[in-house]
Amino acid sequence: MLDQPAFLAGLRQSMWRRIKGHWERAWLARLPTCEPAPAASLYQRFLDNIEPSEQVYHRNDPADWLRRTAALIAAKS
Predict the structure, then answer these.
(1) What are the residue ranges of helices labelled H in 1-77?
(2) CB-based contact 69:2 (threshold 8 Å)
């Protein structure tokens, strides 16, 4: 899950905490030196502070990053 805020947005608070915790543990298991919680917080702050006139330019960012990631995974297979 690369776009955590978009994924968690529609969930109940109780599910949100469980899934966020799972997401953080999964990242740490794969990359022990990473810092998933601060990274997610920075990304959310970026999203929250996009000016309304600029939002149109970032609307497709999550889907673009997911496509890029899928392409990288497919290339390694």
Answers:
(1) 4-8, 13-30, 36-48, 55-58, 61-76
(2) yes
Question: How far, in Å, CA of 27 to CA of 64, rounded?
Answer: 20
- CB neighbours of 5 closer than 8 A, spacing ≥ 6? 40, 43, 44, 47
If we measure between CA atoms, which residue out of 26, 58, 25 comes closest to residue 43?
Answer: 58
Predicted TM-score of the model (pTM):
0.60
Q: Tokens at residue 47, please?
A: 């999203």
Torsion angle of C-alpha atoms 38, 29, 23, 56, degrees rounded to 10: 60
What pLDDT, in 10s, does the model give residues 4-57? 777 787 788 888 888 888 889 988 998 889 888 888 888 888 888 889 999 888
Direct distance between the N- and C-terminal alpha carbons of the chain, in angstroms, rounded to an integer: 19
